[in-house]
Amino acid sequence: MQIKIAVLPGDGIGPEVMRAALKTLKHVAEKFQTETQFSENLIGGASFEEFGTPLTEETLKACLEADAVLLGAVGGYEWENLPHHLKPEAALLRLRKELALFTNIRPAKVYNAFIDSSSLKAEVLKGTDFVVFRELTGGIYFGEPRGYDANQGWNTMIYQRYEVERIARRAFEIARQRKKRVTSVDKANVLEVSQFWREVVADVHKAFPDVELTNMYVDNAAMQIVRDPGQFDVIVTSNMFGDILSDIAGMITGSLGMLPSASLGEKHALYEPVHGSAPDIAGQNKANPIAMIASVAMMFAYSFQMTRAAELIERAIEKTLELGYRTADIYQAGNKLVSTDEMTEQIIYNFDVLYHEEGLGVFTL
Ligand SMILES: NC(=O)c1ccc[n+]([C@@H]2O[C@H](COP(=O)([O-])OP(=O)(O)OC[C@H]3O[C@@H](n4cnc5c(N)ncnc54)[C@H](O)[C@@H]3O)[C@@H](O)[C@H]2O)c1
Ligand SMILES: CC(C)[C@H](C(=O)O)[C@@H](O)C(=O)O
Ligand SMILES: [Mg+2]
Per the structure, how many domains does the chain have? Predict the structure, then answer.
């Protein structure tokens, strides 16, 4: 098999975690006799500096032609005051829209080895394994009209029926393979668009009577995720609520540096960590590469049905954590403090150890 991947390292720690991910990817692909073909392009601030735009047509074309896109992160202090359409983040938003990546999947899974280093108590975290399905190409992020002048600023939160239906359907389908529980998160007590969301989700639910549906207001959901994360299986929600809830979920798992994501459309797929470009630690070889490496695992599973490869990467991450290796963001006294590169080497080493063991290829991210 040959796989064609568009690589977009981006800004800040993006290139550092991408280097880690590509090293892992190449190693895994070789083990599984999979031929890889890469295109690499600038995106975000790096692209703005070189071409005066955060996303060139050439980069977009490379992404449209690839089987899967891998993205590091975009953004940084130096580009914060640019007009909106030139900000690094605009590139990511346009890419999601152009590739029609309407489903963003962000799993919040607690690694056992890690349970004592989270900011939450171990007994609260035990058994936490849920996934956020965030709508990614609609809602207030893209609604018109939008703008600001000297006296006011405005955005529009709008959803079309088909947009809610397709993400809800995917959430119910995945729930069927999991614990069969969907929590739809909205703000229907205040927003009409949320009332609409709630009604459409209920309509879609009729085709999935074996899955339990609960509705929850977003403020309560934020609290419940921290109070009792074990109650959730699949959370489905709109673009902005999903953005916020997935960062909260990031802390459940210990650090944003641990959370991978997949963005899927009908034809295209993009994989990126949930975290940003972390300008505060960029260039120091101390970023946690796990979110990016786990995003590669998601790519193998979702884009190429290589479940065994994905499972081995996931287990190699787990084993590396069990052995006590930690980057600075998750370090506690008694651990082995390692750099981005050393963490990557350990994960690859443990991948090789596990590769020789028997396994069924059960991927849980
Ligand atoms: N998908 C993306 O490209 C993406 C996502 C979020 C934020 N951003 C952008 O990134 C820039 C910085 O945003 P922010 O500071 O709000 O969020 P951030 O995720 O970049 O950083 C938040 C905090 O988490 C830490 N952190 C994040 N990832 C880490 C990792 N892998 N290892 C260790 N520590 C890590 C950072 O050091 C920082 O203290 C902004 O320009 C923002 O727009 C981009
Ligand atoms: C960088 C930004 C545009 C992006 C978002 O808000 O979607 C980020 O926060 C994310 O969660 O992927
Ligand atoms: Mg975010």
Answer: 2
